[in-house]
């Protein structure tokens, strides 16, 4: 049996991206040793130590940094003065002491408000520290980070002493061109000719935003070509169409999605590489390889490419889609530095709206509820002379259930609770001797996106609103009054009257009676109380990226774990790895099966998947029969050497599966029946 194997050519494109630039030149200079003492800050410091003495190998009287014993969340922070490329860190204990840190976490931030944890390639975040006070332990980062602030958060420390730390940071400076978009602005790069036709494109940029929606770039042509890169639900979508409508070919546009949780106010790198119909889309360290549909090989864009939005022609300030709101950095289109051209006011660049060459977006201070059993945030109620109260906040989580908010009411023991129940919001008013009042709104609020929620008990009614959905209300017989404290997440053991699991996730923009809550005051002990919280960060992770579920298994997740739904895949196990089917007809015969149709998996748990075959169990041999779509007789007339008759066969298995089945077989044959009249099969005498 002969097989025609189509050769697939893969074109590999490469450019010097910012993420890998540090590996191509010397970027390991010490950055902290020359900083002034004011560049070192800490959560607290003991009377015998000083954060200003936390440089590596310092041997002054303080000898390094140690927090006070009562510090609940100790940290040491380094301000590099400007954004630098950081490639490694090093730690030491406090000199002439028994104080050191044996493991720690590393966080980074541009502003010192919104922090992000650095994780190594394996997803782990714990760094190995010291075993004594003098030895220096270096840790190279698996990927460099560009940041101004670094924060060392100790996890374990000396058993014979206390926590002590001296640090060094290694890296280098880097070139950065930045542009800011306010949600109503864009940059237009106009071509020198009417249309730009390219068979190869390389577009690279870095961006950061706190919005989950927004167009980063767009271009289109009159023949139907277009390219659009946009944020959608916190992920990055690339829409690319190379459809030459003059050929009248059916070509569906390609939409590829990469990344997750990209609205986290931190920088993310994007690289688009295209050669003909072969495309690579890379976001941070995740790459999707795909091929555009249709027969077009070039991208024809008319007049201009827009960055930050899609302006409506002839209507300045009007846009077709939601604009990008945030910052872009080092934006290159086929080697052209777009931001540099804009800063130099070159005629190829046209600005729409308020475009700035800085990144001054306000940083929202979020907090993370770490524990599903003991995390809580207690806040006192603000004064409200109108009666009743109102609470607004934003949250994001993966968990289907969790207590978000609760408050005890007068007269006792009334209680108002807002919780996530089966991915919906449920507000319950518990009044003794009366039927519970309940309101339910929202759908799939555990999708990892930010959701806004508002609870208002004024005007003798309870109003519950989530995002932009219509409000849900229920009347009250009397005005509700809080007993003073509002609990977010769980609550203290003395005040908890519910068995609901505690909220695990992030919150931000908390308002009580229309007054904003300063979470810095909570962290400093000035306001309220808390337990098992992380401040100035939303430490959410997408455990389904990359998707570890094999063979098309559907990944779902909670805050701390993920699971795979293997239904309909033909595989089982935690990650859909184990095949439900035997590898061959011979294996079915050994189980006592008779002739019939069976699904076989020729490579076991490999990537191919299963295919349906007919197993013919004879006394001598076991035959594996692969069917195709062309078994009926076909009448052939007028076939010649120069114009032969061609038939196409679509088998029930792919070419890879057929090859695997042949490899496992002792013998392979294919039958062709030829009936002729006044014709010859072979051109012989």
From TrEMBL:
What is the residue range of the signal peptide feature?
1-21
Gene3D superfamilies, per this entry? Answer: 2.60.120.1000, 2.60.120.200, Galactose-binding domain-like (2.60.120.260), Laminin (2.10.25.10)
Q: What's the domain of life for this entry?
A: Eukaryota
Q: Which UniProt keywords are present, listed alphabetically?
A: Disulfide bond, EGF-like domain, Membrane, Repeat, Signal, Transmembrane, Transmembrane helix
Q: Residues in domain EGF-like?
A: 540-577
Which part of the chain is the F5/8 type C domain?
27-172
Annotated Gene Ontology cellular component terms: membrane
What membrane topology term does the record carry? Single-pass type I membrane protein
UniProt xrefs under Pfam families: EGF (PF00008), F5_F8_type_C (PF00754), Laminin_G_2 (PF02210)
- Using the record's annotation, list all stretches that form the Fibrinogen C-terminal domain: 576-628
Q: Where in the cell is it found?
A: Membrane
CDD domains noted in UniProt: EGF_CA, FA58C, LamG
Where is each Laminin G domain found? 178-359, 366-538
Similarity comment text for this entry: Belongs to the neurexin family.
Name the UniProt record assigns to this protein: Contactin-associated protein-like 5
| Annotated organism of origin | Lates japonicus
């Amino acid at each position: 049996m002969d097989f025609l194997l189509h050769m697939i050519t893969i074109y590999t494109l490469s450019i010097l991206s910012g993420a890998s630039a540090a590996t191509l030149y010397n970027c390991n200079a010490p950055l902290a040793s020359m900083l002034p003492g004011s560049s070192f800050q800490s959560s607290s410091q003991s009377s015998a130590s000083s954060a200003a003495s936390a440089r590596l190998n310092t041997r002054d009287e303080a000898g390094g940094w140690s927090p006070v014993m009562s510090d609940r969340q100790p940290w040491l922070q380094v301000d590099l003065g400007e954004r630098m490329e950081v490639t490694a860190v090093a730690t030491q204990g406090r000199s002439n002491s028994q104080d050191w840190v044996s493991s720690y976490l590393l966080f980074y931030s541009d502003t010192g408000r919104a922090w992000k944890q650095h994780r190594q390639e394996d997803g782990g975040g714990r760094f190995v520290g010291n075993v004594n006070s003098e030895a220096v332990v270096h840790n190279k980062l698996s990927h460099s980070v560009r940041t101004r602030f670094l924060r060392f958060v100790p996890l374990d420390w000396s058993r014979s002493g206390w926590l002590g730390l001296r640090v060094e940071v290694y890296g280098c400076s880097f070139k950065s061109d930045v542009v800011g978009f306010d949600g109503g602005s864009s940059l237009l790069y106009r071509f020198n000719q009417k249309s730009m036709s390219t068979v190869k494109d390389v577009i690279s940029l870095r961006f950061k935003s706190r919005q989950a929606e927004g167009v980063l770039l767009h271009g289109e042509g009159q023949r139907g070509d277009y390219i659009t890169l946009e944020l959608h639900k916190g992920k990055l979508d690339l829409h690319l169409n190379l459809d030459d409508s003059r050929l009248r070919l059916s070509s569906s546009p390609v939409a590829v999605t990469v990344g997750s949780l990209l609205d986290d106010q931190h920088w993310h790198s994007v690289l688009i590489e295209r050669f003909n119909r072969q495309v690579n889309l890379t976001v941070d360290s995740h790459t999707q390889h795909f091929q555009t549909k249709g027969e077009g090989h070039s991208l024809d864009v008319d007049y201009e490419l827009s960055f930050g939005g899609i302006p409506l022609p002839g209507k300045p300030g009007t846009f077709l889609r939601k604009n990008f709101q945030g910052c872009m950095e080092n934006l290159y289109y086929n080697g052209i530095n777009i931001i540099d051209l804009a800063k130099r006011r070159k005629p190829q660049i046209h600005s729409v709206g308020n475009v700035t060459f800085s990144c001054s977006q306000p940083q929202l201070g979020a907090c993370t509820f770490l524990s599903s059993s003991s995390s809580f945030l207690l806040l006192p109620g603000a004064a409200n002379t109108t009666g009743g109260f109102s609470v607004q906040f934003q949250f994001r989580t993966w968990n289907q259930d969790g207590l978000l908010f609760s408050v005890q009411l007068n007269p006792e023991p009334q209680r108002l609770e807002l919780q996530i129940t089966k991915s919906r919001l449920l507000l319950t008013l518990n009044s003794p001797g009366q039927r519970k009042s309940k309101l339910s709104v929202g759908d799939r609020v555990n999708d990892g996106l930010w959701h806004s929620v508002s609870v208002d008990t004024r005007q003798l009614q309870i109003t519950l609103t989530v995002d932009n959905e219509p409000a849900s209300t229920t009347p009250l017989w009397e005005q509700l009054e809080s007993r003073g404290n509002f609990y977010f997440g769980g609550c203290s053991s003395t005040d908890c009257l519910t068995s609901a699991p505690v909220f695990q996730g992030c919150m931000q923009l908390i308002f009580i009676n229309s007054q904003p809550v300063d979470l810095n005051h909570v962290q400093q002990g000035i306001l309220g109380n808390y337990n098992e919280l992380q401040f100035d960060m939303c430490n959410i992770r997408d455990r389904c990226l990359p998707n570890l579920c094999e063979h098309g298994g559907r990944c779902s997740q909670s805050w701390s774990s993920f699971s795979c739904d293997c239904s309909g895949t033909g595989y089982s196990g935690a990650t859909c790895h184990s095949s439900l089917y035997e590898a061959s007809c011979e294996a079915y015969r050994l189980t006592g099966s008779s002739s019939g149709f069976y699904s076989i998996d020729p490579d076991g748990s490999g990537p191919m998947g299963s295919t349906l075959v007919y197993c013919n169990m004879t006394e001598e041999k076991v035959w594996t029969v692969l069917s195709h779509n062309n078994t009926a007789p076909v009448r052939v007339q007028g076939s010649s050497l120069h114009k032969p008759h061609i038939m196409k066969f679509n088998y029930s298995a792919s070419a890879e599966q057929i090859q695997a089945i042949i490899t496992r077989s002792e013998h392979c044959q294919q039958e062709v029946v030829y009936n002729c009249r006044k014709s010859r099969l072979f051109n012989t005498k």
